[in-house]
Design goal:
6 helices, about 110 residues, HTH_ArsR_DNA-bd_dom, two-stranded antiparallel ribbon, mainly alpha, cadmium ion sensor activity, Arc Repressor Mutant, subunit A
């Protein structure tokens, strides 16, 4: 039976994915933990912008910060999030293959 909590959880996930920068962060963290400075460089945003998006993703419960001395390492809160992203992307491509026409050649997933 679906509850308000289920819809709230899905809405938070949808909110996280509604921004391309947050989506790139989540996709980057699928392969393993990352540090804010490395993620900012990889994604091509400032550290401040990345920090704001990481705060949002933490608030949504999708990523966690693991303190390492004076630094923090970020990782997906649960490995199933990475699997869900792959499944969701596969579904989107199945429903609308034109949204990512180079997926087959570039390894979009």
């Amino acid at each position: 039976m679906e509850t308000v909590l289920h819809s709230d959880a899905l809405a938070r996930f949808g909110h996280a994915l509604s921004d391309p920068t947050r989506t790139q962060i989540l996709l980057s963290l699928r392969s393993g933990p990352g540090y804010p400075s490395d993620l900012a460089e990889k994604i091509g945003v400032s550290r401040q912008i990345l920090s704001n998006h990481l705060a949002c993703l933490r608030g949504c419960g999708l990523v966690v910060a693991v303190p390492e001395g004076r630094r923090a390492r970020y990782e997906l809160a649960d490995p199933r999030i990475g699997a869900a992203l792959v499944d969701l992307l596969g579904l989107v491509l199945a429903v609308d293959p034109t949204c990512c026409p180079d997926a087959a050649t570039e390894g979009c997933c």
